[in-house]
Amino acid sequence: MTNTSSTLALLCTSLLSSHKVFELLQAQPLHTPIRAEAMREAVYHAYQPWAARVPDHVFERAWQKLATQTANRDGTYWSPGALQALADEFLTPRHGQLHVKLEKFGAWQQSVLSRLSGVPVQAAAHAWPQNCVYLSRLTSPDRLCVSDTNNWSRRNSPILYPYDPLVEDYLEREGLHETHLHLNGSTHAEQCWLRALHQPERETTDFATKWHENSQSGAKLRELSRTINPALSPAELRRQLYAARALRTWLVAAATNKLADDTSLPVNFTELQEASLDVHDTLEPDLYLGEACCIEGERRWLYQLLHRFDCQTSLILERMLHLYLLLQNLYYRLLVQSEEQYGLEQFQKLTWTELRVPVEKDYLNRFRLMHGETWRSRTDCLEGRFAPKDLPNKNVTLVRSILGGYLRYLNESAHDKNCSALEADSLSELLQDLDDQLHKGTLKNRSRMRLALVAHFIKQPENPSDSPYHFYTLRQSLERQAHALIATLENYPNLRRWIRGIDAAANELHAPPEVFASCYRLCRRAGLTRRSFHAGEDFPHILSGIRTMLDVLEILELCEGDRIGHGTAMGINPALWIARMPGAITMPKGDWLLDLLATWRLLRRAGITDDAYRVECDLAELASELFDRDITCTALERAMRFRGLNLFYLQQAQCTPKQDWFPGISPLNDLQRTEAEQVAWTMRSHRIDLDLLWEWLSDENVRNRSRALTDISANYLTDQACLRIQQELMHEVARRRVLIETLPSSNVRISQYQNFGEHHSLRWMGVPGFKQDGDAAIMVTLGSDDPGIFAGDLRGEFYQLYAVLREHGYNDRDALGFLAPLNERGREYRFHDSSIE
């Protein structure tokens, strides 16, 4: 496979992003050359854990090549040489524009963009174009009105793509249909960086608050920060941002020839942190920091500086550039999930840094960026996800902010430079303004993208002291949020045109689907009938992920047009998963009981009797241990199918004499009354089953035994048996006509994949060599999840899968033939209001 990084590229990324290299440079005066041996040692210590199974002679040869490429007649120019090497390996001109090589796109996103910003590499590609091929120069652009959406996206997107004429023609005709994007987490790290340099104190306030919290998220933030830089703290981060701002000021001045020959440059890093520099007034406004600053301006001054090095060398300026890039990329690592960070726990640490909070209070720029660079929106349909609040007035504030940004985006026109409308005073007025825009035909011909909002409820871990039953605190919180969301829609009926569905997101290890069942029913009865649920994304055992997906289908009663987000457990090659996992996996016994129950049921459906009998024996033994008496598998199966009942009313029923149902209970409204009646009806028909279920959910002895840990073999079942279970689940998904939202970059970072060529969407597309005999045909849509955290977007997701198909020998039309249905399913099964056209 050519879609991998060279060792030279790994060394270059280490050189530009490692705290070990930063510590080396920070300790030396800026005018003192860094010895090659000292730099080699720092880069080796950064590189070696990354490539622990690669022999040292591979490193040595690559290091020799890097040392040769960075050598200059006046010394070693480490950062320009590293940038040029990365540009040569990954980037190429096409029709005057810069693109990523198709065969290198996966490695570019996985290995490079997961560790450092691609913008300086782009500047290097412009400074030293390959083979004298024509590439448009980064000269000063005309001043563009900030309300010009198309130009704004061109100036502020840090993302590059491959170029394929057939793909570009398809995307121009069809547009992209985004079915899974979290609005918070979609801002790119480069935009956060420029804002942080502008006002370091303000931009890091939330980071400091979270850092000092005596909470799990605070502890995880400190854990993340210290793996990136052991010396990092809120105070140190601010000092580094002030130093980076000073460095940038000097470097921009040098790039734009604003430094006199006799200018006294800083002596050391400490001076940079403390200096009060007075050169800002000499800089062009769009090159400095503030609201007018843009990614294109950053790319341009970097290009000018690198171009200057060809004519006028300066070891001090090169050292200052190297320090600036290191500081930028150490900050970048707090916002973008790295290649070596696996699993949702490590992903969530990035969401807790709070460094995106200031920039993401306004939604306009995210819509501009998703629009793309052309007058027609690259994105046709966007489903943006947001977390609903527990009070209607909080929902009004949040939704008004989102839709206010969308209205301003709709009002923008490349032909009318002064049309950025002020947001309406109230949500009612805002909704009326949006209706007016729709009546004008603003969305025709994809001149603007269509928006739908999906409210996603957040999974939270159970409090061990939760009582009187399983996940008591989270269930109460979800009910408050559901009622607040419903009340918001009742108060603003026109809002239903925009809030189109519900979802449950975050770490699936924190809360199982049954906790959300009552919340989902309340929303469905209130008219929010379109549903999705994150499941099978990250799991301790592959059987755990399969069980979660089965529970989502059955307990949440998903049906035609509903969707499951991710579904990795149903698609990943079981042999690959077993090979990548440790031999034994530690997990709570109660979770393993439910996994065995789902496995036993699916094995029976698949007719795999030998494995089913073995699982049945283990299930009965474990059930007897947890309940402290013999429990049959069939009794357990009958009881567990009612896990989705509302436990508040089940608790009342358990405490009420059998002949009298719910005395004195007055549900707040018809929705709650329906929940109570469902429990009452089930008690009449299945009292014995509910007694066993209630014991499972509320008895402290059973719960304590269920929390005890046990070791489970990764290959508890053979890969072939796991494959058959996956296929049985696929048939259930197909039978219910439920769609799967596939999110390649997210899955490659979070799951056990090492590259896009292993991703399970190839199996779901039916690609020969990936599709397994017995797989059911399922419907799949494409999404980007958290594009800012994964340094990509939906167009990049499309190209990643296209690149893999081409690498496997398919021509352009055949590759597009496999891939296009994923995008088109997003249009056919979108949650959007059909009247919004």
UniProtKB/TrEMBL annotation:
<dbReference type="InterPro" id="IPR032466">
    <property type="entry name" value="Metal_Hydrolase"/>
</dbReference>
<dbReference type="InterPro" id="IPR006330">
    <property type="entry name" value="Ado/ade_deaminase"/>
</dbReference>
<protein>
    <recommendedName>
        <fullName>Adenosine deaminase</fullName>
    </recommendedName>
</protein>
